[in-house]
Every structure is written in C-alpha cells, then in structure tokens.
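User: Predict the complex.
Assistant: Input components as received:
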Amino acid sequence: MKILVPVKRVVDFNVKIRVKPDGSGIDLANVKMSMNPFDEIAVEEAVRIKEKGGASEVVVVSIGPAKSQETLRTALAIGADRAILVETADTPVEPLAVAKILKAIVEAEKPDLVILGKQAIDDDCNQTGQMLSGLLGWPQGTFASKLELTDGAAVVTREVDGGLETVRLKMPAVVSTDLRLNEPRYPSLPNIMKAKKKPLDTKKPEDFGVDIAPRLNVQKISEPASRKAGVRVGSVAELVQKLKTEAGVL
Amino acid sequence: MTILLLAEHNNGALHAATGKAVAAAKDIGGDIHVLVAGHNAKPAAEAAAKLVGVAKVLHADAPHLEHGLAEEVAALVVPMMSSYDVFVAPATTSGKNVAPRIAAALDVMQLSDITKVLSADTFERPIYAGNAIQTVQSPEAKKIITVRISAFPSVDETGSAAVESIDAPAALGLSTFERAELTKSDRPELSAARIIISGGRGLQSGENFTKYLEPVADVIGAAVGASRAAVDSGFVPNDMQVGQTGKVVAPELYIAVGISGAIQHLAGMKDSKIIVAINKDGEAPIFQVADYGLVADLFQALPELEAELKKAG
C-alpha cells in the first residue's frame, strides 16, 4: 500500500506575524518558516503506518516555492521515502488549484490513501482535503483524531463540534488530520543526514495542465481590531459588583 | 440572486448555527432557501421555516442523509446549485466538511469562515488564527461560503416559510457512519452560550473542573470551556476547547480561569463582549485582553465567586 502526504511550508506557528502597513500582505522577510503543524501530524501518521507494516511507501508532495524543498526534507527525515516538489512562484496558490494538482499526482502515483493536514495555519482555509476527495470521487474522513486501517477500509474517528464521530471509508480515501491524532517525532540527526540522499523530483504546475492563477481577489490584509487591557480588581466582590453595575452582563 | 443555505441540525432539532448563517445570508441579499438534509428531520425542517428571512425550506429525507456524511450531502447539493447563485453553510465541523467538496465539484474557489459581508461579492475573513483580516472579493459565477457563526447574530424565529419535500439522489455508499460519542450536558452549548467560563492548566485536573468551575457555571447558567493546555493534559474532552483549533466563541461574558492566554486561545475568544481573567500570575498575557482582571489563586477565588454570584442572584 502506498500513502501520499501533501505538505505545506508556512510561517512557523510560534511566530507573531506582522501585517504590512500598506495592507498588501504579511511581512515574511526573515521570518522562520516550518512545515504546517497539521501536515507534520499527517507525515507522522503515514510513517507510523509504514513502520507497523501497513504501507510499503510514503510519498510526500509540496506545492510552493523552491524553498519548500526544506519542508520536504523534513518530511523525509521523519521517515517518508521520496518527495515531489511542484515548484511555483513565491505567491500563494489557492486550495482549488492545489487540489487539482494533487488529483493529477494521485492519478500518476496511485496511492491507496492520502493523509493531509485539515488546514494550513496561514490562510486557515480548511478546504484542500475535501476538494481533493471531491475531485477524485473518493470518500473523506476529515479532522481525524484516530485512524485504523482494516479490510480495505479506513475507520476514522473525527473531532466534531459535539464530541467524536466515527466513520468507515472505502479505500482509496482522503483523511485530514486534527491535532490529537499523534505527536510528531523530532527527526534524529542520522535520519536528517539520510533524508538528504532520498529522491526529490521537481515538477511545474504546467506539467499537470493546471492553471494556478488565483480565482479570488484579495483586496487587502489588515490588522484585527485590537483590544485594550481593562482594569484590575482587588477582590471577587468588587469583580461581581463591576460586572453587574458597570458592564451590565450579569 | 438566490441563496441555498445548508441547515445544521441533528434531525430532531435545528442547531442555533443555522439562524446565524441566515443572518449572514441576509447581509448578502436575495431569496434564501434553507436545505434540511437528514432522516426523520421534519422537526428540524419546521424549525428552519420559522427563521425570519427564509423564503422556503427544502427538506430532503433519506436514511443515508441521517448523519450528514459529506459525500452524500454534496451529491444532493451539487445538482441543485444549477438553480442557485450562492451556497452558504455555517462554519461548523459539518459545514466545513461538506462545503469544499461542493465547491470543487462546481470548480469554484470557496470563501471560508467569513466574519463580515461588505457587499454581495466582498467579504472579510480572518487568517493567521485571527491575527490578520483578509478582505476578499469573489468574481466566481457561483459563490460557496462558510460563515463563522460567532460573528453573526441569530435571526428571530417568528417566520412561517413553506416546507417543500425534495427527492434525494440514491446513496453513494462511499462512507458509512459507525458511531458518535457526543458529550451530554445540561449546560448551554459553547457556540450558543451567553456566558462562558473556561478553565486552563491552572485547574490542575478534571476533578477540579467539576469541583470548582462547574458550580460557578451553574449559578449563572454558563457554558464550560477549556484551553488547549487543559484538553491536551487530559483534564476535559476536546469538544470543550475554545481557541483557534477548537471553538471560536463570542459570548457577552467570557471568564478565563487559570488560563495564561496563549495566542491560540485568544484567537478563539477575543471577540467576546466582556472578558474577565482570574489568574495568579499577574504577568499572564490574558490580562492584556481582559476588561476585568483579578490576580488571585483560583482555588480560593472560585468558591468566593460562587458565593458572591449567589448573593447577587
């Protein structure tokens, strides 16, 4: 069985981003970039399946600028076998275009399972997995906190608003990861060295006949309304009194 | 312009998210048709017909629609979209699950999690966990939109739209529902509560949620939430999590107890009207967004708060 794991290079989750004053975007100069945390969970899950003998190969793919190679090398160091970079300019590619490229890669690679993060922490779209499974006509198990593979089916426990829900998907299928699926490992130094020698193919969106021109017009990016610190109260009694008379919320 | 709006429900009852999505759809403008896809979902369809602003309720009833499986719901909606200009769903886990599947089938780029309607084709939506706001215009012939429900008010329930039964396509059977483990509680739901009291790592255990936080919640009819730290430490289940990766809430009063105020938590509650922080660390970042801050040991402050609130009754 083969597993395909798409990964995205994003601003590291610990970085406090800065909005450019002219409203044109986020200042990415000299900002630390990392693998999207949900995608890291996806790579870890695929590698664990392989280590338990449930898969023969884990292929990682990234669609983004040349530097996404670093992200792919990280995935290879976690334990993926080979990588595909679909190189684009340094501008964002929308989830619909990403899903179309991934569909073409799925048709060429013929994986049995695609595991990917439920959303990227930059655009917060939460679309790519669902779009990919829709385009392929495959079932989808989104927001997974548990994944079991049995008898040609993927049994996915999903984190839903009211608690947990379990669905059984016919394979091949697309699974998107939530935070509690696993805790990704830190790659060891020998594995980081080994990852440098693993195969990495570079392609272009044109190779798949996909037009990546954005469909939506982003007019501006602005700072959210800021919230100012209020007052300190000295006691619980004062707090309740202020909530009642000043704030009027009790 | 005609809008198809996917109802959030559990067959027996309509979820409050639906009314909030209707509020967003009214801002977009046009006739609003609500789709109730379910099984034995007549009560939900009847409740949807009462939402003010709804022109018509379409009720598709079939066993394979009972659990809102994305594959089945998308197969129902995609052909319907030839008669609609806009598809709207609340950005709940079920709306997020199904909307992009519909968008891809229609070859449309989706607008996720909108927080404001500027015009019929231009919207605001948060990116980077709410640390930036994107203003985005969609020139697409059809628009697929999910709505952040905490950003919109509910509509009144005094309407009386007609309910029309529609046929559901045959089941695809790509996926099947196995089971749900839903948290049962007599307290209000997080996404609909007027008051929320949340606990963080400072609570130290799940027992302390029961012993210290819940009695306060019950005095004021509040929902109980938690920070990611409290969920990851195993104190409480994941569906209680408030934050960027949990639920985004905007109640009238949000009381954060023993929560330091990590960016990821703030992203989930900073639009609350009044924020109260109780924390023994006066330097905790939560105080930077709190309207009222109390530096205190929560194990003393919470029983006091319970008593004071009872007195204030």
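The helical segments of chain A are 37-51, 68-78, 95-109, 128-136, 189-195, 236-245.
Let me know if you want any component modeled separately.
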